[in-house]
From TrEMBL:
Pfam families: PseudoU_synth_2, S4. It is an enzyme of class 5 (isomerase). This is Pseudouridine synthase. NCBIfam families: pseudouridine synthase.
Length: 337
């Protein structure tokens, strides 16, 4: 019997597969045990495969997610998000009777939120109205081929698709409303609603009694039709200039400037101070805030009424379509003042 056969016979009975390691002979025969450590291949460490993170369970369809408190306050029109953070840290906000001491707290739909002890009612819709104090030297489009500055360089809000409620031209300033609600914007701009817009106007030269009487009793004739009697009040005369307050109920292109041009007078400054009963107040130039619930309700009421040849659904769709086209072409409605 050969030596190889003898080795096969000498295998332990427990090694039935014939694959168990044998002790190498002195002459170097047999398989040597590997010197590689576990987790190595060719002397290189093998990195363990990363476990893919578990995807968080999504909320059931139709469930309303919780939102951060400062964002919730801004959505209800209480204040801007930054102002919300400030009043939270000042411990002026409570949820379900407990004062909030830090940022990051979230609000659920059924929570009761109070600011300075006053309950904040949650809006049933998601529409937002932003008040912006437009400075002079800015235009009201997303971009400009001539490279002029736009309001969006200063107006940085959480809502990317705001619809401008009318416009102010390059040299006009004051209150500009923007909203996420197409129907609201359409209603506020529609001439049949006669929503009042009030302006403070500085005119070069002295307005005579005769000119003032003409404006208030007859109005003037413009290229696009007569104005009819106007609501104009002379506030003061200073240094050869006249300050007047004027309220319009329509949004014709550059109407105020054209009115005074027809009287051979030049507008030196034009400031919109209110729209639909919402006042600019002490809002600094270049700053914005959301409307309060009372202001939002006033605008909603001003926007409601009969529209000639359109129902509520049609006007909302038309406003949304107009806003989308304007954003694509930068062709928003002509400046009112």
């Amino acid at each position: 019997m050969s030596q190889a056969k003898g080795r096969r016979k000498g295998r332990p009975s427990s090694c039935s597969s014939g694959r168990c390691a044998t002790t190498p002979s002195k002459s170097g025969g047999g398989r040597k045990p590997s010197s590689r450590k576990k987790g190595e291949r060719g002397g290189v460490k093998i990195q363990p495969k990363r476990q893919s993170p578990r995807r968080q369970a999504t909320a059931p369809k139709g469930a309303v997610a919780e939102v951060r408190l400062q964002k919730w306050l801004a959505e209800q029109g209480v204040c801007s998000r930054r102002e919300g953070e400030k009043i939270i840290l000042e411990k002026r906000v409570s949820i379900n009777g407990s004062i909030v001491h830090e940022l990051g707290v979230k609000v659920a739909p059924k929570d009761e939120v109070r600011v300075d002890g006053r309950i904040i009612q949650q809006r049933r819709d998601a529409s937002v109205v932003v008040m912006f104090h437009k400075p002079r030297g800015l235009i009201c489009t997303k971009s400009d081929p001539q490279g002029r500055r736009t309001i969006y360089e200063l107006l940085r809000t959480p809502w990317p698709r705001l619809i401008s409620v009318g416009r102010l031209d390059l040299n006009s300033e004051g209150l500009l409303l923007l909203t996420t609600d197409g129907a609201l914007a359409h209603g506020l701009m529609h001439p049949s609603r006669e929503v009042p817009r009030t302006y403070r106007v500085k005119v070069r030269g002295v307005i005579t009694k005769e000119q003032l009487q003409q404006l208030t009793t007859e109005g003037v004739e413009l290229e696009d039709g007569p104005t009819g009697p106007l609501d104009v009040k002379l506030d003061q005369l200073t240094g050869g200039n006249s300050w007047v307050t004027m309220t319009l109920k329509e949004g014709r292109n550059r109407e105020i400037r054209r009115i005074f041009d027809s009287l051979k007078l030049t507008v030196a400054r034009l400031l919109r101070v209110s729209y639909g009963g919402v006042e600019l107040g002490e809002l600094p130039a270049g700053q914005w805030r959301t409307c309060t619930p009372d202001e939002w309700r006033a605008l909603k009421q001003a926007s409601e009424g009969s529209l000639i040849g359109a129902d509520e659904g049609e006007e909302g769709d038309a406003a949304e379509a107009s806003a989308q086209e304007g954003a694509a072409r930068d062709d928003t409605p002509a400046a009112e003042a």
